[in-house]
């Protein structure tokens, strides 16, 4: 069967992402739409890409973002790299930082972080959908991240985004035109590999004024999960019809 990968919780302060991944698993066999979607694909769900960073965010620094690798500078150690800027495609270009103390440090080289090496060396057969979930901003993101240039399958990507945005319109999800570039990302890497459907999703809150940011109140948890699952099901439906999967 065709495969779909759901990669989550790269940045540890985005706790809502890790919390909601289990909904997809727990509702299998109970929710007809989720069950049907899961039955059409072999799903590979990665709830925790960065376990060392997660543990550090849990016990020491709630807003920790990076991995926990050690990087020496001229006069001090700085810890971690941005796991979503450490992938090999167009690594270290626009929107990445070469300073080890930066929150968007791209690492010493492409795939310097073992967490990312593990993902890349894990060969998933017939991968047709890759989704990278983050928070926050309520955005739907598509390649490329490092440039304003558009990929060859841009029209197909946009057709899906319009389909999904129509579904999520009342939930204020928006298609993101690139404003802040980011290079070395997982979605750009998967696009370069030729995966047909690749998206980044920024979950709740919309929060233009940073009222909640990464500290989402409990009453946001249920609607975040509901709209996320609706989007994933819509993506599977669209891919099945248009790619005859």
From TrEMBL:
Chain ranges of the Peptidase M14 domain: 1-239
Q: Which SUPFAM superfamilies match?
A: Zn-dependent exopeptidases
Name used for this protein in its record: Peptidase_M14 domain-containing protein
Name the catalytic site residues.
202
Organism this protein belongs to: Angiostrongylus costaricensis (Nematode worm)
What Pfam families does this protein map onto?
Peptidase_M14
The cross-references to InterPro entries, in alphabetical order and at most eight, read: Peptidase_M14 (IPR000834)
Keywords attached to this Swiss-Prot or TrEMBL record, sorted alphabetically, are: Carboxypeptidase, Hydrolase, Metal-binding, Metalloprotease, Protease, Signal, Zinc
**Domain of life here?**
Eukaryota
CC cofactor:
Zn(2+)
Q: Family, per the entry?
A: Belongs to the peptidase M14 family.
The entry lists its GO molecular-function terms as: metallocarboxypeptidase activity; zinc ion binding
A GO CC term attached to the entry: extracellular space
Q: Does the keyword Kinase apply?
A: no
* Gene Ontology biological process: proteolysis
